[in-house]
Structures are given as structure tokens and as C-alpha cells.
Design goal:
Layout: E1 2-4, H1 10-22, E2 27-29, H2 37-43, E3 51-58, E4 61-66, H3 68-78, H4 89-123, H5 130-151, H6 165-179, H7 190-200, H8 203-218
Parallel strand pairs: 1-2
Antiparallel strand pairs: 1-3, 3-4
Helix pairs in contact: 1-3, 1-6, 1-8, 4-5, 4-6
The structure holds glutathione (GSH).
Residues 9, 11, 32, 47-50, 67-69, 103 line the site of glutathione.
Length: 220
């Protein structure tokens, strides 16, 4: 299997952590932002990462698809164990809620900081919109952290007292926060900080994060 993209994207990181938690592996091919060529373009019609290829899996043809949610839906159907999306109806719905919360609210808010402080100045060599980044930090982030602080269960897992796609999806974008040195502080949001530290210390995330830190540091 091939995943196209860079783990600096919270959505690519989400798919790679998911694969690791499932005990599956895939080759990560650097793609997006001008890289990847026709192979990537075939799998991602709008050039977004992640994209995915399962060679020969579609009646002998490659199965290709993009979008982290679509990729994980495919993988979960093909490899049901260990389940990362619970079967119980309420827990399944809660998992998808947290996936959506992670993808749209946590990642979108973090993206305003990551894009304007790292992607624009360091990759695209254009100035970022610092007012937009600072606005996200001051006005949008505290609401997200307050919600997590009152929601994270004592078990340390968001759904069903065990690791699921909910934890992967919510924790993944916080790595981008950390790359920008923003995020919840332990004095005001202790539960959230402890929760994120524990999820992101898992082997499914830890090695990837170390590689990313080196990548970001090399950008200067
Ligand atoms: N909903 C998509 C979001 C994918 C997405 O927005 N990826 C960004 C990187 S974080 C991207 O490829 N941006 C480049 C572009 O839009 O051209 C998913 O879950 O995979």
C-alpha cells in the first residue's frame, strides 16, 4: 500500500498513525505542493494529501482514493481487527464526531497558525498572515481546549475506554500546534495536556513526530 503526502499534514499523520495502531504498514511517498507527479494526481484529483493506493486491490486494478476519512473507511472495512471504529452504535457515532472535531475544528484552527508561521514563510517563501495566526491562538484555541478539558474521560481515551480513531484524529493536529510552540498549557488545561502527552507518546505517533521535529528544525 502507498500513502501519498507528508506527515507534516495532520491528515497524513492521522492515516499513518492509524496504520501503525492497526499493525499495518504502507510506503509513504512524498507528494503534494508540486510533488508526486501523475501517480499522485491519479489518486488525488484536487492535489490534496493524503492520497492512497492499494495495488491490484480493485479486481486486479489499483484501488486509489484521497481524503483521510475515505482512506480509513476503506482500511477499516478491509482490516476490521483491531477495531479503531467501534461497532456499538453510540460509540461509533461518538468516534465519527471526534474525527470530525479533529479534522475540522482542531486541524483548521491549528492550520491558521501552521500555515502562516511555517508553510508560508519557510516552504513558500512568502510572508504569513500573523494577525490570522494570532487570532486563532487567542480567540479560537481556548474554546477547543475548554471542550476537551471537560470531555476527556478518566480512562484517557475519548471513546469506549480504549484507543480508537477518535484519539488519533483529535491528537494528530496537536502535533502541528507543537511545531508552532502553541497549545494548551498544563496550568489551565491539565487533563488535556496529560491526555495529549499520553496519546502522542504511543509508538504510532512518537517516531513520526521526532522525524517531523528534525524536518521543521532544518527549515531554520
Ligand atoms: N479532508 C481532507 C483534507 C486534506 C487537506 O486539506 N490536505 C492539505 C494539507 S493539510 C492539502 O493537501 N493542501 C494542499 C492543497 O490544498 O493544495 C482529509 O481529511 O484528507
Amino acid at each position: 500500500m502507498i500513502v501519498y503526502g507528508s506527515t507534516l499534514s495532520p491528515f497524513v499523520r492521522k492515516v499513518m498513525a492509524y496504520l501503525a495502531e492497526k499493525g499495518l504498514s504502507a510506503e509513504l511517498k512524498p507528494s503534494g505542493m508540486g510533488r508526486g507527479g501523475p501517480e499522485f494526481e491519479e489518486a488525488s484529483p484536487f492535489g490534496k494529501m493524503p492520497a492512497f493506493r492499494d495495488p491490484g486491490a480493485d479486481n486486479g486494478h489499483d484501488f486509489v482514493i484521497s481524503d483521510s476519512t475515505a482512506i480509513i473507511t476503506y482500511l477499516e472495512a478491509k482490516h476490521p481487527e483491531p477495531a479503531m471504529i467501534p461497532a456499538d452504535p453510540a460509540n461509533r457515532a461518538r468516534t465519527i464526531w471526534f474525527e470530525e472535531f479533529g479534522d475540522t475544528m482542531v486541524a483548521a484552527t491549528g492550520g491558521k497558525v501552521f500555515f502562516n508561521r511555517i508553510v508560508a514563510p519557510k516552504f513558500m517563501k512568502v510572508p504569513g498572515d500573523e494577525a490570522a495566526a494570532q487570532g486563532a491562538v487567542e480567540t479560537e484555541m481556548p474554546r477547543l481546549f475548554d471542550y476537551l478539558e471537560r470531555t476527556i474521560p478518566d480512562s484517557g481515551f475519548l471513546v469506549g475506554d480504549r484507543m480508537s480513531l477518535a484519539d488519533i484524529s483529535v491528537a494528530s493536529p496537536f502535533v502541528n500546534y507543537a511545531h508552532c510552540q502553541v497549545g494548551p498549557n498544563a496550568a489551565r488545561w491539565p487533563r488535556t495536556v496529560a491526555y495529549l502527552d499520553a496519546i502522542l507518546a504511543r509508538p504510532s505517533f512518537a517516531t513520526m513526530i521526532e522525524g517531523e521535529r528534525q524536518m521543521v528544525a532544518a527549515l531554520g
